[in-house]
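Lab notes, practical 5.
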Amino acid sequence: MTSTIVTSIERVGAQGHAVRLNYDDTSRVTSQAVVRELGLSEGAALDTSLLEEVESRLAHERLLRLVAARERSLHDLAERLLRDGYPSEVVQRVCARFVELALIDDSRFASMLARARSQSGYGRRRVLDELRRHGVDESVARAAVEQECQDPSRLTELIRAAAPETAEERERTLRRLVRRGFDIPAVLSALDDFTRRRS
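Output from the prediction step:
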């Protein structure tokens, strides 16, 4: 047991989930949940080995609640724990264990997100960009987009629903679908096909 005295506790960041513990000549960022669990305050005795044990346990419990709520990427979950104040070495260790147990799976997350976005009328480029923002590996993201965003009938349905008749309506439909992540050549081809079928 390594015991020391807390000299001060300071909030870190705007959200207030992370705090900086100062003791001896050491400064450590941790979660406010850890400070509450240990009942720490300025002048309190601190067992540093217990601190690390509680950080791991509470980070594990927090991660369990997050993965139970909905599918998320490894990157998003790690960022959430870091924002909550858990030290990076604790976050890496706990996340690695969840990956090992398949509780976190970027392939599963990427497929789910790609399928949902495709069904909502978004194109491959937009879905790929979103997966990148979630920190999904490029090859994993591309594989999910290839598998889940291949249905050309979805583009045809979106154009049929818009039913563009004039050149202006076609242009507006083209711009809207390109903003949603569809490739220009695919949209133009589908628009031409729609026009031919209506003639």
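Observations recorded by the TA: Residues 151-199 form one domain. Strands lie at 3-12, 18-23, 26-31, 45-47.
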